[in-house]
Design goal:
The chain has about 375 residues and is mostly helical. The protein has 2 domains: about 140 residues, no CATH class; about 170 residues, no CATH class. Helices cover about 75% and strands about 0% of the residues. The chain has 15 helices and no strands. It is globular and about 65 Å long. It starts with a helix and ends in a 13-residue tail after the last helix.
C-alpha cells in the first residue's frame, strides 16, 4: 500500500479515535453546551453566593454572609466542572477541572470566566483523549488534565482575562458616553442572546458587564422574557406566562425559526426600555456581572440590581434606595416590557405578520 493511500486513511482513524473519546469539534458543543454549563456553574456559586450574602448583610445575619462568601469563592472550580460535565468528561477528568478552574479564574482576573471557558474546554478534551489509555489511568489522566489546564492558565489566562475585561470596559465606557445609542445596542443584543440557544449570562460574566451597560442588559433580557410571556398568554396560559416570564424566552426559539417576525415585538420593546434604563432611570448593575444577562429568570437580574444598591450604600457611593430607583426597576423589568410587547404584538397580528398558533409552546 502506498504512502499516499495510508495518509488518506489517517484522517479516518483520527476521526474514529475522536468519536471513541467523545471529542466533538463543533460550535454547538463549545459555544452553546459548554457556555451554557458555565453559566450554571456561575449561578450555583458566585450568583447564589451573592444573593445569600446580600440577604445576610441586609438582615445582619453573619452566618449567611459567611455562607455566601464560601459559595462565591468556588466560582472558578464550579464553572470548570460544569463545562467538563457538559463535554461528557470521564470522572477523573471532571474532578481534575477543580484545580484548572481555580487557577484559570484567579489568574484571569476580572475576565476570569472567559479564561475558564477556553482553558477548561482545552484541558477537558485533552484529558478525555488520554483517559483509560494506560494501565495507570488514575495517575496519568489527572496529571495530564491538571498539567495542561493549569499550565495553560499560567500562560494565557491573564491575557484572555485582560482582553475580555478590556472589551467589557469599552462597552461600559461607551454606554456612559453615549447612553442613548448604547442603551439601545446593549439592550437589543444581550436580549437577543438570551433568547438564542447561547448564554447571555455567560457573555455578561465573561465581559464583566456591569454599570449602566449592565442595566441596559437587564432591560433587554427582561423585555424578551416578559414580552414573550405576555404576548403569548392567550395561547399558552398561566403555565406559559411563568415558564417564559421567570424561566426563559428560549422556549420560543422553535417558533422563531418558523416565523422570525414574532421576535420583533420584544426586540422593539428592548430598544425602547434599554435607553430608558440608561438615560432616564440611570439603572445600573453593580452586583454580580452574570446577573446582567439573566433578565427576570428567577428574578436574578432584579436581585442583582438590588444587591448593587446595597453594595453602593456600603461603599458610600449611594446614600439610600429611593422610590425612583424602585419605580425604574419595576417599570423597566416588568411593566414596560409587558405593555410594549403586547401592543406591538397586537399591531403585528392585525397586519397578519403574527397568526394564531405562531406563539404556541410545545406541550
Amino acid at each position: 500500500m502506498s504512502e499516499t493511500t495510508q495518509a488518506e486513511k489517517n484522517p479516518g482513524k483520527v476521526q474514529a479515535f475522536l468519536q471513541k473519546k467523545n471529542v466533538e469539534l463543533s460550535w454547538r458543543r463549545y459555544c452553546i453546551d459548554a457556555m451554557g454549563a458555565m453559566a450554571h456553574g456561575l449561578f450555583a456559586s458566585l450568583l447564589i453566593g451573592t444573593i445569600i450574602a446580600t440577604i445576610g448583610t441586609q438582615f445582619k445575619i453573619q452566618v449567611l454572609v459567611d455562607i455566601g462568601g464560601y459559595a462565591k469563592s468556588v466560582a472558578g472550580p464550579a464553572m470548570a466542572v460544569a463545562i467538563a460535565y457538559a463535554l461528557k468528561a470521564p470522572n477523573l477528568v471532571l474532578f481534575s477541572m477543580l484545580a484548572v478552574g481555580s487557577a484559570s479564574n484567579a489568574l484571569g482576573g476580572a475576565g476570569g470566566p472567559l479564561a475558564v471557558l477556553i482553558i477548561a474546554i482545552v484541558a477537558t478534551e485533552i484529558g478525555k483523549l488520554v483517559s483509560k489509555e494506560t494501565k495507570i489511568d488514575i495517575l496519568v489522566t489527572p496529571l495530564v488534565s491538571i498539567g495542561v489546564g493549569v499550565g495553560l492558565a499560567m500562560l494565557i489566562a491573564k491575557p484572555i482575562g485582560d482582553a475580555a475585561s478590556y472589551i467589557g470596559e469599552v462597552i461600559m465606557w461607551a454606554t456612559e458616553l453615549q447612553p442613548l445609542l448604547m442603551g439601545v445596542l446593549v439592550s437589543v443584543l444581550v436580549g437577543i442572546a438570551l433568547t438564542l440557544p447561547i448564554s447571555s449570562a455567560a457573555i455578561c460574566a465573561a465581559l464583566s458587564l456591569t454599570g449602566l451597560a449592565g442595566g441596559a442588559a437587564v432591560a433587554g433580557c427582561s423585555a424578551q422574557m416578559i414580552g414573550f410571556a405576555v404576548m403569548s398568554f392567550s395561547e399558552n396560559g398561566v403555565g406559559g406566562l411563568i415558564s417564559q416570564g421567570i424561566g426563559t424566552s428560549m422556549l420560543q426559539m422553535g417558533n422563531i425559526i418558523k416565523n422570525p417576525k414574532i421576535w420583533l415585538p420584544p426586540i422593539i420593546a428592548s430598544a425602547i426600555t434599554g435607553p430608558l434604563a440608561t438615560c432616564v432611570f440611570k439603572m445600573t448593575m453593580n452586583g454580580a456581572a452574570i446577573s446582567s444577562g439573566m433578565g427576570t429568570c428567577g428574578l436574578v437580574g432584579q436581585i442583582g440590581v438590588y444587591s448593587g444598591w446595597v453594595n453602593d450604600i456600603a461603599a458610600g457611593t449611594k446614600t439610600a434606595i429611593t422610590g425612583f430607583d424602585w419605580a425604574g426597576l419595576i417599570l423597566i423589568s416588568f411593566v414596560l416590557p409587558a405593555v410594549l410587547t403586547w401592543a406591538f404584538g397586537l399591531l403585528f397580528k392585525k397586519m397578519g405578520w403574527i397568526k394564531p398558533g405562531d406563539l404556541k409552546l410545545p406541550e
